[in-house]
Amino acid sequence: MSAKPQHYDLIKKPIITEKATMASEAGAVVFQVAMDATKPQIKEAVEAIFGVKVKAVNTTITKGKVKRFKGRPGERSDKKKAYVMLEDGNTIDVSTGL
């Protein structure tokens, strides 16, 4: 299965935080994905781009916070994260990039 351009539109970037690193020890990889992406689309995109087998996909939506930008109130945009559980023996090294 080859990666199509729309796969790269779905998967925006890997998320490298302390929580995501702890999840990677349990065999999960965390990506920021498009807000309209569905779990089957995310599974297909990750399998096509990285050439791995996906066991499960969990998603979460983080609402944007109200913050001040140069004294003016503004709002961060909402984000959707996908926790992708990989089958045993499959790994993705997000620190090196694609």
Question: Mind explaining what this structure looks like?
Answer:
This protein has 98 residues and is an alpha+beta fold. It has a single domain, classed as Alpha-Beta Plaits. Helix content is 27%, strand content 36%. The chain has three helices and six strands, in the order H-E-H-E-H-E-E-E-E. The protein has a four-stranded antiparallel β-sheet with strand order 1-2-6-3, sandwiched between helices. The longest helix is centred in the middle third of the chain and has 12 residues, at 39-50. 14% of the residues are buried. The model has no long low-confidence stretch (mean pLDDT 88).
Keywords:
98 residues; Alpha-Beta Plaits; two-stranded antiparallel sheet; 27% helix
SSE layout:
Layout lengths: L4 H6 E4 L3 H8 L2 E6 L5 H12 L3 E9 L3 E4 L2 E4 L3 E8 L12
Antiparallel strand pairs: 1-2, 2-6, 3-6, 4-5
Please give a quick description of this structure.
This protein is α+β, with helices and mostly antiparallel strands. 27% of the residues lie in helices and 36% in strands. The protein has one domain: Alpha-Beta Plaits.
Q: Which CATH class?
A: Alpha Beta
Q: Label the structural class.
A: alpha+beta
Instruction: Name the average pLDDT.
Output: 88
- Total beta-strand segments: 6
**Could you list the spans in which at least 5 consecutive residues all have pLDDT below 50?**
none
Count of helices? 3
Beta-sheet strand percentage?
35-45%
- CATH architecture classification: 2-Layer Sandwich
How do the strands of the widest beta sheet line up side by side? 1-2-6-3
The ordered H/E elements are HEHEHEEEE
Global Rg: 15 Å
Span between termini: 17 Å
Overall tally of domains:
1
Identify the CATH homologous superfamily: RRM (RNA recognition motif) domain
CATH topology: Alpha-Beta Plaits
The geometry reads as: globular
